[in-house]
Amino acid sequence: MSSFLTPPAASEYAPFYHTYVRLIFGEPLAALREQPRELRRLTEDLTEQQALGRYAPGKWSLKEMLVHMMDTERVFAYRALRIGRGDPTPLPGFEQDDYVPASDADSRPLADILAEYDAVRAATLALFESFNPAAISRQGTASGQPVSVRALAYILPGHEAHHLNLLRERYLPALGK
């Protein structure tokens, strides 16, 4: 039985991440495999102009949100890699509000963003599928807080589930969809 089937204990991640962990029911790698289909379904009819839409002033555009999801996935996967391989080095945090404007997401075609998303997700799945039970159970430190590879396997799709909810509940209605 995969060690990912056992949800992480609260001691395996910072309390902030409970918001994401609680969004994953069942096996987290199954969520990682299903989310790209859901994202494509939600974005398949969007125009470039709609993908620049924001659900409120000062919020990220839909394109910016998608690139933020990829940036976060890369950071969380990198943390899982380092911790899973037994690297004890404390890992720094990252400031999402600095990354988003630097991404220049709004200048990119939506199709290119979605193609990159598929590549990032394929790499993430390959990484998590490569971990043995010992690696899954390893714990390290990221952003000054404890985190396990198991917790990252839940946090990562939980973060995306949060943003897919925003897409359904805020972005699409603001775009008249």
UniProtKB/TrEMBL annotation:
Residues 31-166 form the DinB-like domain. Gene3D superfamilies: dinb family like domain (1.20.120.450). InterPro entries: DinB-like (IPR024775), DinB/YfiT-like (IPR034660). Pfam families: DinB_2. This is DinB family protein. The lineage of its organism: Bacteria, Pseudomonadati, Bacteroidota, Cytophagia, Cytophagales.
